[in-house]
Amino acid sequence: KRLGVALRTAVEAGELSVAYQPIVRTSDLTVISVEALVRWDSPEFGRVSPADFIPVAEETGLIHDIGKFVFQTACQDMAEWPGLKVSINVSPAQLREPNFANDFAAIARRNAVVPNRFKLELTEGLLVRNPTIAKRKLARLKSMGFGLSLDDFGTGFSSIGYLRQFPFDWLKIDKSFVAELGTNPTSNALIQSMIALGDALDIAVVAEGIETAEQLQLLRLLQCEYVQGFHLARPMPASEVTALLARLG
Ligand code: G
Ligand code: G
Ligand code: NA
Ligand code: MN
Q1: Cα gap 151→192, rounded to integer Å
Q2: What is the pTM (predicted TM-score) of this model?
């Protein structure tokens, strides 16, 4: 409860910031996009993990202002990164808000950023609860130009046939599968089947949570096109992304 009270003033007090984690092409480690991840440095609680405060933000409705803050911040930061795509996490509660698509489109327009530079990261839970409404909302976002990415793939309930009905451009293999890579034959087979599924449906596949060189090597062998994780790069401030891109040329 105290967290909720402190969070209420966090946006206006400038306690929130956005970190970015690179997503790279497995073959040559080119940075193709970054994922925006909100950070909260509270004078009262210190650094609070989004895993702890996002659920509070969802319950209290603060997620809408936080979501707009993250999106606005990303729009400003992207001006320094020509052509780079940015993934934005979107909670089910945000998508349920009737003005969500219009608000995001307006912020992008105001900052002169085209919607196709974004990938909105959504989770399966959202699709399962009300597939008909979800389908309509995703179609609308897609028609506005936003890219769509299915996050934490494999942890929910959606079947293959189900995934087919939604207009995703990207799917992200959940880090729990990557963590098991090489430890048992089943996890390799599961990742292999998710990669094959992406290929069949013409959806780009990203594996998340790569923490070791061995995991990266195995994903290369499995021909997973894109990877993300601490082994490649940690979430970093915008200025470090700018420096990284300059260094890579
Ligand atoms: O950054 P970290 O890995 O600690 O994130 C923990 C969780 O918080 C993840 O599930 C991530 O998707 C979520 N998260 C991080 N940033 C945002 C954000 O800007 N909006 C929403 N809705 N969720 C976020
Ligand atoms: O739910 P979502 O997939 O959006 O969560 C993203 C979270 O995963 C972020 O909080 C990010 O900090 C975290 N993350 C990114 N790379 C790694 C990694 O290699 N290992 C682990 N354990 N977490 C990671
Ligand atoms: Na995500
Ligand atoms: Mn994820």
Answers
A1: 17
A2: 0.97
